[in-house]
Design brief:
CATH class of the largest domain: Alpha Beta
Strand order of the largest sheet: 3-2-1-4-5-6-11
Shape: globular
Strand content: 15-25%
Bound molecules: NADP nicotinamide-adenine-dinucleotide phosphate
Radius of gyration: 20 Å
CATH topology of the largest domain: Rossmann fold
Distance between the termini: 49 Å
Structural class: alpha/beta
CATH architecture of the largest domain: 3-Layer(aba) Sandwich
Helix content: 40-55%
């Protein structure tokens, strides 16, 4: 019999890549969608799998809805990827973020415990839980110090997952994933904002990009490789928690430089702080500006993960380099812009 997987957050970046991976492995994939009003499944379409995933309406805010979905599907594996995942928005909507990212995990775990306790469970935890980092690099034993309502809610999601494993002997794993990007990343996130903006600048459709902190450093990996780590966690003999990261860190400034370079534009920097600007070295035009609008009330300055445990126990390792990742994203956005420009 084909294994059945339930993926929450099917409409997101990771939901799309994970669906593709599981379909290739022969799973029946059920995607939970909360009917947000956006009726397009553009990511599933881009991967050519929109007809292969069975969509089930399910909102993590509604327990009865979650229970019915678990009862109907009776999944072998549940991947909880649904979240209000944009850190900046979590400062504007801290209660909603907590209800989805913290209590939503509990609702799903309770539904599984009551209806289908043998199902294996994956929780999408995040490096944002490390926030004001207590050690460099961060591993599974590093203390959490989240710096946003998003990070705080995800800490709850992490610990309730561990608690259900320890209390009820459930096969529940928490994957502490560092930033992972791709052409399917939402445009609200800085990496995609940069690559889509730069592609538009290169084609003369946009003048400049306004960003927040240029010196924030992140450990950026390639999303299709990260969903493979999620699957590997649920195939182990014992449930456990793993950091998934590249072990390298790069600043937003470096990301910007590499992204511009892959369109043939060399960028130089002038000024300091809020007056800093990214200038096209050839034309002298201002292409990047800084605005406090995009600063977080509490910043996370540096994240760098130590994936040693995932390497040793899961046999997982990152393959795509930082510069190749940026190129892949810029190439995809240039192609999208070319299509937009077609008569
Ligand atoms: P994403 O693109 O933002 O996708 C999140 C999905 O969750 C969206 O499809 C959204 O639905 C859905 N969702 C939001 N509220 C919901 C609710 N109340 N009920 C049901 N679904 C709801 O995120 P992603 O980048 O794929 O990330 C997947 C997961 O990994 C998230 O939990 C994220 O926090 C976590 N994570 C991501 C990264 C990263 O770098 N990408 C790193 C660490 C952890 P709509 O489409 O309807 O809005």
């Amino acid at each position: 019999m084909r294994k059945r997987a339930l993926i929450t957050g099917i409409r997101g970046q990771d939901g799309a890549y994970l669906s593709k991976l599981l379909l290739e492995k022969g799973y029946q994939v059920y995607g939970a969608d909360r009917r947000s009003g956006d009726s397009s499944f553009w990511r599933l379409k881009e991967l050519g799998i929109d007809r292969d995933v069975k969509i089930r309406y399910m909102d993590l805010l509604e327990l009865t809805n979650v229970m019915r979905a678990v009862e109907l599907i009776m999944p072998d594996e549940v991947y909880n990827l649904a979240a209000q995942s944009f850190v900046q928005a979590s400062f504007e909507q801290p209660l909603l973020t907590s209800d989805i990212d913290a209590m939503g995990v509990l609702r799903l775990l309770e539904a599984i415990r009551m209806i289908n306790p043998d199902a294996k469970f994956y929780q999408a935890s995040t490096s944002e839980m490390f926030g004001k980092v207590q050690a460099i690099p961060q591993n599974e034993k590093t203390l959490f110090h989240p710096r946003s309502p998003y990070g705080v809610a995800k800490v709850y999601g992490h610990w309730i997952t561990v608690n259900y494993r320890e209390s009820y002997n459930m096969f529940a794993c928490s994957g502490i994933l560092f930033n992972h990007e791709s052409p399917l990343r939402g445009v609200e996130f800085i990496t995609r904002k940069l690559t889509s903006g730069i592609a538009r600048i290169a084609k003369g459709l946009q003048e400049k990009i306004i960003v927040g902190s240029l010196d924030s450093k992140r450990d950026w990996g390639y999303a299709p490789e990260y969903v493979h780590a999620m699957w590997l966690m649920l195939q182990q003999r014992q449930p456990d928690d793993y950091v998934v990261a590249t072990g390298e860190t790069h600043s937003v400034r470096e990301f910007t430089e590499v992204a511009f370079r892959s369109t043939g534009i060399r960028i130089g920097w002038k000024g300091k702080g809020l007056r800093e600007k990214g200038i096209d070295k050839k034309t002298g035009k201002t292409l990047v500006e800084v605005s406090p609008e995009f600063f977080r009330p509490a910043e996370v300055n540096i994240l760098i993960g130590d994936p040693a445990k995932a390497k040793k126990k899961l046999g997982w390792r990152p393959k795509t380099t930082f510069s190749r990742l940026v190129e892949i994203m810029v190439e995809a956005d240039l192609q999208r812009v070319r299509k937009e420009c077609l008569p």
